[in-house]
Amino acid sequence: MRIAIASDHAAFALKATLAAWLAAEGHDVLDLGPDSDARVDYPDFGFKLAEAVASGAAERGVALCGSGIGISIAVNRHLAMRCALVSEPLSAALAREHNDANVVALGARLTGEDMAKACVTAFLTTDFAGGRHQSRVEKLGAPSFAPVTSGNPA
Q1: What class of enzyme is it (predicted)?
Q2: Residue 147: inside a domain
């Protein structure tokens, strides 16, 4: 599988570790940077990652920053992206199974190397279940949608 990976400066070391590990596992890794731990802006690298996955240059993506929050927001600004911030493997698997997530985000300051590898493994090895989840995922990619409410909106 071709995996795009990108980070900010805070997650540079974890990105390098995961990129090498993914390559050793037999994946084709598209490392979108940065190339050092010099200060950079996570939105720039989140955008590059989103473009790579949306264009088909990569099948899935791994996004990293200090907390994982900023880069996940940046990736999700692209309508074709479903980026899930996770901290353990069950969430990574459910993001794929129920939400057809195409990018997983991790916080390098919050997630150790072994846990990050376990999350990425779960993300890459879980298939989308489709079925009742399909129409929900389709709504996520709509240019604008109004959630349907039922009952008391409070």
Answers
A1: isomerase
A2: no
